[in-house]
Fold each of these.
Amino acid sequence: MLTFGLAILGLLVGPFLGIIIDRAVNKERLVATHRCPVIEGETEVDPDELPERCGADLGARSLLPILNWFQKCPTDSSHRHWRYPLTDLSTAAVFAAAGYRFGSDPWLIPYLALFAVLVAASIIDLETRLLVDILTKPAFLAFAFVVLVLSPGLNIADNIWPAFVAGAFYLGVFGLLHLISPASLGLGDVKLAPTLGMAVGWVTGDIVMALRLTMYSIIVASLLSFVVGATAGMILMKDWRKYPVPMGPFLAIGAITMISVSSLLTA
């Protein structure tokens, strides 16, 4: 029942994450309404260029889950943006996963907050191939603070060292990969890595298990990105290696998956 309730909560939170997604890239003031991206036509858009925004006010209905999925852009009646259902459904899914893993334990709250940030960061990365500092840096500082300050009160003080060791391991792996191939793994992925490592490592009091979970999450993320990239390449009839998919969403999926099933692996 809790898992179902958190899924409904995720549907309600999703539209408000959309506001952050609308405005986080350009560090704009948050306003309680969505606006719609301009359609670039059939021509390919340079992934390094930020998409322009038409600035059209979508009104209060844009904050209603499910109903906003059918909302059309005021400047182009043929356009419905894929972002809105993806954000709402993704938030519902990760909230349900957190409920499944943590139940009513108090450390459910920091994971719900982190998962919401990961959804927003992933959607932005899909659209712009950017993991923006305005999300990744505060997420790291906030989660490190939570691990240090809340662990003793939650009776999981033994989990502090595994969390930070896993975070350092994540940072080392992705920092090295970035140095080897900056075109394949951006600096934003490196900045997100220690937060994901801490989140994965914090679920256990054993450093070895924390490192195992981080390795599993990296493997899941790598396999997913390869499969999705290759599949997209075959569908588009292009060499998928020339159009690398953003890694941020897959890193988030890998970490969330391992966190969700960690109780089964550590039993």
Amino acid sequence: MKTSDISHPSSDIIITECPRDAMQGIHDYIPANIKAAYINKLLRVGFDVIDFGSFVSPKAIPQMKDTAEVLSKLDREYISIPGQSSMTNNQSPTKLLAIIANERGAKDAAAFDEITFLGYPFSVSEEFQKRNTNHTIAESLPVVEAIQGLCLKKNKQLVIYISMGFGNPYGEEWNADIVIKWVTHLAGMGIKIIPLADTVGVSNPENITRLFSNLIPEFPGVEFGAHLHTRPDQWKEKIEAAYGSGCRRFDSTIKGIGGCPMAKDELVGNLATENMVGFCREKNIPISLNEQALREAIFSSSKVFF
């Protein structure tokens, strides 16, 4: 499940644990030491990637104002440093991902050796792109180009999330062809990792299958991922559709915490890590996670989120 080449995993599935997504919408501030203690427990699980924080305006996401401080408190021995190879207790280190929304945030994130991936949300919805990054879609393209150049210079890799990848709540036109058009454009810019994000919880087996079954064969040099939001009774059919269509990169959070408030359905959260792991076991898909550490992290989540 681990690899020194961030674009070519050695086994079947890459799991990105997303505590940042789980934390960012919580109104009450979670102190940096509590965030760091929880993420350190996640690091011991051995996830391929942890989406641990974001370098965005504290006015936009107050909960993430301390990302740099949290990073300073993380156990480096469990973190993969780009350009270095290491292994702790027979466990390959985890790569860190930070979300950014502009060039300034990208420069801030790229200054840290511990961060491998910079994640940028690129929406196929004009309205959501403006709300999320204060740019139109057209204005976002040179931003992506600049961040990509920075990543190449700083030995990072840019991950472009396709926001509203499975539907649009604003009444704008949405169809799979629109998603495919923008993915084609981004792939042409040299982007190698493109997860499709179910921003408002409207993915279903049909649109998941159509998108991944068209995109994955068309762009063999791109690693596609699934950032799925789901109701508790729909997670399995969504994973099955994505996996059956060739997707091998999945985002999840312990207990399914988080999700997008715009879904306006309290039952729609992130894909639960426990369900993702259970699916892998049921299908005999090899994953290399420390089971005891995972149980401890699940237990600790109740102290962070409840």
